[in-house]
Amino acid sequence: MKSIAIITGASSGMGKEYVRTLSSHGTYDEVWVIARNAEKLKELAAESEFEIKVVPLDLTDISFTEKISALLEDEKPNVKLLINCSGFGKFDATENISLEDNVGMVDLNCRAVVAMTYIVLPYMSSGSEIIEIASVAAFQPIPYINVYGASKAFVLSFSRALGREVKKRGIRVMAVCPFWTKTAFFDRAIRKDKDAVVKKYAAMYEASFIVKETWKALKKKNKDVCIPGFTAKMQVLGVKILPHKLVMSIWQAQQKLK
């Protein structure tokens, strides 16, 4: 039986970095890379030491489940690692963001994560691992990053609870909660035709750092949440202690948002 890893959002940012550094974590007969941009996936395949299967799909279109299900049923692999890295955000007042984008964030950040996980789980065995990419935004309500933050809160809760359910099968689930990270995420999140919502960044991490911390965290038994970076950890600690009404007020004051 073929041993594989599946990584969504693999064409750029953290997803791409996970593929690039995968050999530091384990060995696989094949790696399935999923994203919309087929050309970028092919470029990634050319530089990987693993056998790569390029699977160009738009995960906001729920019909993607049919193709993934068919591939899994046809090959019946042993999925040793699933990383759900696809996602996007929009920063603005919720009413200023299009309905398509607001619903799209939920579709990609939540529905696609649940669907991919659900489809893959039957092909996992004891020792398999699932990494769900959440965010530090998951720990607090964030005005003007409203739907994105809420979607990541869903991912965090889903991941932790699922981990308890599948523990009896020997499957590990871990949510990764990055702080601000230098990726193409901001190209889509920030509008170019108006003042930026986020004017102050407490810290900005490299994707390589987030990925390195992920691999380290997976070596720690029973760890179900990874928060890479000291500043990120302090941020999460603060929002756990303070009332969320105050947290929202502090956020708006920092960013000069009414």
Give structural notes.
The longest helix has 22 residues. α1 crosses α7, α3 packs parallel to α4 and α4 packs parallel to α5. The mean pLDDT is 93. This protein has 258 residues and is an alpha/beta fold. It has 9 helices and 9 strands. The strands form 2 sheets. Strands 3-2-1-4-5-6-9 form a 7-stranded parallel β-sheet, sandwiched between helices. It has a two-stranded parallel sheet with strand order 7-8. β2, α2 and β3 form a beta-alpha-beta unit. It is globular.
Sheet-strand content, in percent, reads 15-25%
The secondary structure category is alpha/beta
Physical arrangement of strands within the biggest beta sheet: 3-2-1-4-5-6-9
Count of distinct strands: 9
Pattern of helices and strands = EHEHEHEHEHEEHEHEHH
Summarize the main sheet. Answer: 7 strands, parallel
In short:
The protein is of the alpha/beta class and 258 residues long.
Key phrases:
7-stranded parallel β-sheet, 9 helices, single chain, 44% helix, globular, alpha/beta, 258 residues, two-stranded parallel ribbon
Question: What is the strand and helix layout of this fold?
Answer:
Blueprint: E1 3-8, H1 13-20, E2 30-35, H2 38-47, E3 52-56, H3 64-75, E4 78-84, H4 99-120, E5 129-133, H5 146-166, E6 172-176, E7 181-182, H6 185-189, E8 205-206, H7 207-218, E9 225-226, H8 230-241, H9 244-254
Parallel strand pairs: 1-2, 1-4, 2-3, 4-5, 5-6, 6-9, 7-8
Helix pairs in contact: 1-7, 3-4, 4-5
